[in-house]
Specification:
heterodimer; A: about 150 residues; Heat Shock Protein 90; five-stranded antiparallel β-sheet; 5 helices; B: about 130 residues; alpha/beta; five-stranded mixed β-sheet; globular
Chain lengths: ~150, ~130
Amino acid sequence: MSERGDNTDNELGRLEGRGQGSSGSVQIASEDDILLARQTVRDLAEEMGFRLTDVTRIVTAVSELARNIHLYADEGVMRWQKLDRPGRTGLELVFDDDGPGIDNLEAVLQGNYSSSEGMGRGLSGTRELADEFDIETGESGTTITIRKWSRD
Amino acid sequence: MSELRPTAINEVFGVLVASFPGKPTDKAVDSLQEQLLQEVDRRQPRGVILDISRVTTLDSFFARVISETANMVTLMGGDVIVVGMRPSVAITAAELGYGFEDITTARNVDHALSMLGITDSTIEQSGDANE
């Protein structure tokens, strides 16, 4: 049985993620968009030949970061880009929002801080799951960039 | 808005089997938790099985709900078993530190049923309990 979001934006976003392009984006404005972001990245990562374990790691990270946008910033965007470097390919995902930023970043990144919504390891866990992780946060919003490289 | 699917809670030999959908919205997960607790209260099952075999992404929210649901059922006096975690999900969950330390796990629904004292032959007579 298949499940899908059913608004037009979702379908557009999904098509972007499915194609042969090297970059695209998914708007995150509702809870359904968390699923859409996940599915988009799952399709991309599978198409790029990531191993199932790495697909699962990447999609889990997407789920955390897209949900953070939905919960704390209301809306934002996930931009994806395929990276082609000598000897390796990768996937870069940028999560960008104009929300209030993260106050206690150090504690959050160490997994010492838990909101009522999660297990306190959302962001710190995401850092574990990605090969590269970068975060910029302030009063004007948060931008988180993760990269995962395919092991040939 | 996406529609919530009919909740996948079935009773098998006095055991409640709750099947978590593969790609649920947060609301669907919350709703399943609530309905399951109501069913536990209403039917007083001999055990509860949380089937996560269709789950391909276990993030911190989903992990919390599963762990919390198991604790709630335990508080209500039920035996609860989480079954069917996929290998890739188990690897990711372990890396994230979701040990589910206090939760009983089993490979699949049949395995969990036998742990709850229901024999294989009984299950075969009544068809597959998994889906």
